[in-house]
Amino acid sequence: MTEPSTKQADDSVITSVTNGVGRIELNKPKLINALSQDMVARIDEALNAWRDDDSVKLVLVTGRGERGLCAGGDIKAVYNDIVAGTDENAKFWNREYKMNFAISEFPKPYVVVMNGITMGGGVGISGHGSHRIVTDSTKVGMPETGIGLFP
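^ thats the sequence. predicted structure below, dont judge the formating
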């Protein structure tokens, strides 16, 4: 069994493999699991490790906390990048979109529980997967379109 590097409970993404299930758990509940570059890298790392690992039969993605799976990208980081005038936002979106494409072509069942708020990047990590589970509290949206960032 191939396992990504060891994850601790205080990490922003926790991964594990149990009984054939590769589990990815977003772990920033105070920020509704808003995605950062590090989180995208960790998700991508896990998917790459599990792609050809015969002991992993499916991937399950969830988010910690009561409020939602993922509120999207980390808006504070986006703002700070704009103010600083760096290209970190472009790097983030480039890596995120490549990860989303990898999710769309993942060769095993990729199941996401879209509980609560699932917006922007949360839609990216769920909508491209093979299976999406919505609950009575799911709220899906792409706020980027409302502000004209993406059509």
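The CA atoms of residues 69 and 133 lie 11 Å apart.
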